[in-house]
């Protein structure tokens, strides 16, 4: 048994001859190997660290045996920290205005606790006092305060506790709770500072309510899921924490020294009205979509190499005259990865390209992958706005002394965006499946049928391709927009709804299928590369091959394929394929920029009529732009 452990960005393969040893041993052995590889770095003689499983972000207890929590070829991340009981003391402040989808996913994975922000606390204390005084002295009718809902807040909350289906996994419940805290922190929901602080304490202790995934129509917000979230915080129903597992909510809270929430005016409604379920799941979907879109370019470039395609279709001038940002970005990545003066390929040099042009699945990657990138950027913008919005009803404007009933709870924005995300990212799998077919089909690839030498005795990638086709077919159904549907509810009062919860859940399923199809393409492309040996490909693509071969051996005869697909999928979930090529892409960018600059200096402005294109880096997202 062996486990790959990430220490400060370096991946170390640790053989576990005795898997009954503890996770603490695994962590110490990984640190020992890291120290041996980095003698200049000083490590503590008694290091404290946290171990997390990469595939699901699960926190691993250092006293557990390796075999009880890990499988062969699992991936684990080691984080050194000052800690209390294995929980990282890293914090993020929520102010209701600056949360991003990436931040929210990190909060869900347990990378951060939520920190009290002193200016925000003072602001909320002022708003809460003003809201509380206003709501208690209110003589006008205010929905949720002095109507039936306000008087019977708890009983109505219980009645909304009507969700069904499997519970959200802890990481997603943590995201849901964090986003609810961020929304309430804006100060327009009439929630007391005491209630908000209790929610924050529950998050930091990972006391997470049982929240079923089904039951929301996306207006008025995500009522049923948020009711389940609130009732756990009130000490009712089931709750989970790392220390207790699933048990009675009050027991979990008291076990962490916490007290249940006691509802004040307006709080019953404030805790359940909003778009946080669809938005939190959408945040995970768009972050994973962004990660797989980057890696799709790398995998497609490797496929083009083994199919002996040409890089001419990625020439800068072609894409400059159709300047969609995503298309330009993808073409730049292909130029950096494929044969060039900077990164030559022996495979490309061995036989000159003898076709007029390649198939669309190779030639049109910038156009197809590009629009997926642009779709993701659009959806991310919508969701980042939604994460920092007040989506309650009614909203309390305490300083004006009024409450206003409106429609901010309607989930049409995230619902439409997430439907668009499903449609946009699906094409990455659709075109990937066609590339897998080209590699497996000897009449199209000049490679052995199904990428295995002894085809009469072995099926090779035949059924893996069938799996990819099945996943793509499922996605075609899942891409039907949820938000075009609406059913009137609540006696025709809530007579138009968004179905945003389903849009978010199916977007996650689509993204997962895309990841799995591209995992199959990665396996197939690396297998195809075996038939070109001893010739090598470009340095960045060789690095991808080496990465996969650390966890999956070449396919010489039939064996269980599903485990290989799962391991390759883990590589993509951890963005290891992207991280493997990023230094080479940076090197290409720097070398190419220097080359263009020197050419520009040598040519005089009077004698040069052609346009020079300069590559610059958009630092925040490691993207390039052409100017």
UniProtKB/TrEMBL annotation:
E.C. numbers: 4.3.1.3
UniProt catalytic activity: L-histidine = trans-urocanate + NH4(+)
UniProt keyword terms in alphabetical order: Histidine metabolism, Lyase
Lyase recorded as keyword: yes
Domain Par3/HAL N-terminal: from-to ranges: 1-75
A Pfam family: Par3_HAL_N_term
UniProt entry tagged with the keyword Lyase: yes
GO biological process, one term: L-histidine catabolic process to glutamate and formate
PROSITE patterns named among the record's database cross-references: PAL_HISTIDASE
MF (Gene Ontology): histidine ammonia-lyase activity
Family: Belongs to the PAL/histidase family.
Name of protein: Histidine ammonia-lyase
Primary gene name: LOC113583744
């Amino acid at each position: 048994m062996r486990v790959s452990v990430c220490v400060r960005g370096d991946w170390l393969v640790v053989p576990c001859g005795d898997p009954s040893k503890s996770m603490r041993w695994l962590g110490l052995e990984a640190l020992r190997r890291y120290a041996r590889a980095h003698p200049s770095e000083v490590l503590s003689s008694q290091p404290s660290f946290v171990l997390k499983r990469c595939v699901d972000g699960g926190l691993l207890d250092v006293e557990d045996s390796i075999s009880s929590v890990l499988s062969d070829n699992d991936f684990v991340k080691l984080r050194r920290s000052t800690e209390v009981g294995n929980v990282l003391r890293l914090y993020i402040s929520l102010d209701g205005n600056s949360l991003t989808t990436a931040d929210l996913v990190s909060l869900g994975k347990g990378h951060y606790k939520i920190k009290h922000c002193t200016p925000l606390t003072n602001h909320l204390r002022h708003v809460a006092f003003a809201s509380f005084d206003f709501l208690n002295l209110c003589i006008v009718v205010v929905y949720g305060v002095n109507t039936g809902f306000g008087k019977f807040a708890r009983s109505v909350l219980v009645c909304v506790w009507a969700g069904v289906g499997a519970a959200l996994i802890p990481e997603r419940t943590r995201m849901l709770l964090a986003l609810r805290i961020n929304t309430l922190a804006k100060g327009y929901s009439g929630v007391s500072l005491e209630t908000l602080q209790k929610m924050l304490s529950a998050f930091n202790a990972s006391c997470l309510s049982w929240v079923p995934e089904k039951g929301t129509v996306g207006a008025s917000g995500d009522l049923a899921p948020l009711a389940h979230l609130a009732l756990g915080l009130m000490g009712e129903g089931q709750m989970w924490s790392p220390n207790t597992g699933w048990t009675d909510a009050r027991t979990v809270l008291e076990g962490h020294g916490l007290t249940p929430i006691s509802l004040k005016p307006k709080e019953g409604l404030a805790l359940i009205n909003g778009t946080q379920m669809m938005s939190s799941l959408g945040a995970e979907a768009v972050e994973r979509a962004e990660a797989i879109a980057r890696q799709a370019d790398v995998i497609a470039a490797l496929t083009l190499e083994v199919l002996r395609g040409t890089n001419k279709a990625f020439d800068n001038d072609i894409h400059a005259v159709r300047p969609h940002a995503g298309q330009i970005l993808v073409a730049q990545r292909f130029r950096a990865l494929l044969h060039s003066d900077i990164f030559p390929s022996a495979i490309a040099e061995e036989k000159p390209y003898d076709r007029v042009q390649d198939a669309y699945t190779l030639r049109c990657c910038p156009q197809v992958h590009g629009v997926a990138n642009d779709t993701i950027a659009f959806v991310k913008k919508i969701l980042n706005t939604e994460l920092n919005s007040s989506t309650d009803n009614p909203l309390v404007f305490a300083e004006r002394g009024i409450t206003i009933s409106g429609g901010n709870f309607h989930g049409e924005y995230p619902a439409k965006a997430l439907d668009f995300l499903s449609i946009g990212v699906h094409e990455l799998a659709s075109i990937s499946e066609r590339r897998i077919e080209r590699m497996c089909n000897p009449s199209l690839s000049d490679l052995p049928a199904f990428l295995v030498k002894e085809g009469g005795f072995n099926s090779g990638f035949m059924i893996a391709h069938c799996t990819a086709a099945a996943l793509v077919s499922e996605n075609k159904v899942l891409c039907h927009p949820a938000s075009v549907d609406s059913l009137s509810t609540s006696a025709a009062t809530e007579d138009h709804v968004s179905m945003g919860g389903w849009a978010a859940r199916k977007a996650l399923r689509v993204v997962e299928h895309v990841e799995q199809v591209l995992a199959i393409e990665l396996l197939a492309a690396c297998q195809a590369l075996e038939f070109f040996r001893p010739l090598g490909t470009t340095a960045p693509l060789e690095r991808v091959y080496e990465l996969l071969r650390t966890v999956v051996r070449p396919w010489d005869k039939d064996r269980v394929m599903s485990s290989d697909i799962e391991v390759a999928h883990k590589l993509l979930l951890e963005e290891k394929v992207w991280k493997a090529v990023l230094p080479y892409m940076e090197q290409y960018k720097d070398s190419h920029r220097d080359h263009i600059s020197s050419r520009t200096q040598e040519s005089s402005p009077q004698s040069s009529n052609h346009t020079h294109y300069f590559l610059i880096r958009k630092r925040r997202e490691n993207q390039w732009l052409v100017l």
